[in-house]
Amino acid sequence: METIIKKIDPNNIDQDIIDEFGKMIADGKTVIFPTETVYGLGANALDEDAASKIYEAKGRPSDNPLLVHVSEIEEINPLVKKIDKKAKLLMDKFWPGPLTIVFEKKDIIPYRTSGGLDTVAIRMPSDEVARRIIKSSKKPIAAPSANLSGRPSPTKAEHIINDMQGRVDGILIGGPCNYGVESTIVDLSGEYPVVLRPGSITLEMLREVLGKVELDPALMRKSDNIKAKAPGMKYKHYSPKADVYMVKGQIEDFARMVNEKNKENVSKGIKTGVLCMSKYKDLFEADVFELGDSYEEVAKNLFDELIELDQKQIDIAYAQIFEEKDVGVAIMNRLKKSAAYRLIEV
Ligand code: AMP
Ligand code: MG
């Protein structure tokens, strides 16, 4: 498949390019575009065949539903059965932005888009390029992250082009993704709201608006056998080719352990990497993949650095762990999956 690749300046948006990509969506094609979280791989959410192309391009299992993106709040009216008070509160406070809400779907949303569920997960992105493409296409856009299934979500142009050229009709390269982790997903169907996927809109922020909100219990453990509300939760995710291990303990002990392993590994031709905050980089003799200086930066950089591990052909990587509060919950959720829950205590 030939892929049209274009760049767009988010500070000076060329409407002709937007309309070219909007038309591709309206014509049932697949387009990768930037959002404020990660790049999305989009197609017309109302067109079953177009939605099928997303699964095909990603190699994604067909029971793992797609997120649907709108450009204005009113656009959800034809898509969902009802909008209750809590949903309204969340939309008023956090849209446009990195929050996805699960609604009961109307028949217009094909089961191919909802992964066979009677619900549909919807968000309104704040990224201007993303919103303009949705508007121009005049369609709700189904768009999961633009990675091959099971791999880290991409936030950088070069990573997308490497993996996805030839698998989609268009790739639009825009500005950097400000958040770097995918949207928070919240389900309001139960007795109290439940977060199915943690993100940059934190539990604390949701609680301020809604009162009681909990993390889905399936997020707490390896969830191979759980009939999860977010079917995506059961699949292996965010895995670089390197074996990633999380390391718990004092940073000095972590560094000592890694530096010893690194010596052994070098003699065996095994390449060792470390994922840690930038301030610790000098403690390590192995290849360091810097995650930044604040939790927000770690969230933004984590997927990039996981992909960089592969580009540098790292065989084994040791990762610092983070406190599970605020955006640390989202960071640890992604890190645990990329490490297949392996943890070393030093
Ligand atoms: P992605 O952004 O590609 O990683 O995938 C979208 C995520 O949203 C997946 O993990 C899905 O499991 C989740 N999701 C999509 N639709 C629903 C839904 N109706 N109910 C619960 N979770 C959903
Ligand atoms: Mg994804």
UniProtKB/TrEMBL annotation:
InterPro entries assigned to the protein according to its UniProt record, in alphabetical order: DHBP_synth_RibB-like_a/b_dom, Sua5-like_dom, Sua5/YwlC_C, Sua5_C, T(6)A37_SUA5, TC-AMP_synthase_SUA5
Catalytic activity: L-threonine + hydrogencarbonate + ATP = L-threonylcarbamoyladenylate + diphosphate + H2O
Annotated ranges, domain YrdC-like: 15-201
Keyword tRNA processing: yes
Chief place of localization: cytoplasm
Keywords: ATP-binding, Cytoplasm, Nucleotide-binding, Nucleotidyltransferase, Transferase, tRNA processing
EC number of the protein: 2.7.7.87
Cross-referenced SUPFAM superfamilies: YrdC/RibB
Sample GO molecular function, one term: L-threonylcarbamoyladenylate synthase
Biological role stated in the UniProt entry: Required for the formation of a threonylcarbamoyl group on adenosine at position 37 (t(6)A37) in tRNAs that read codons beginning with adenine.
NCBIfam families membership: L-threonylcarbamoyladenylate synthase (TIGR00057)
Name by which UniProt lists this protein: Threonylcarbamoyl-AMP synthase
Organism: Peptostreptococcus equinus
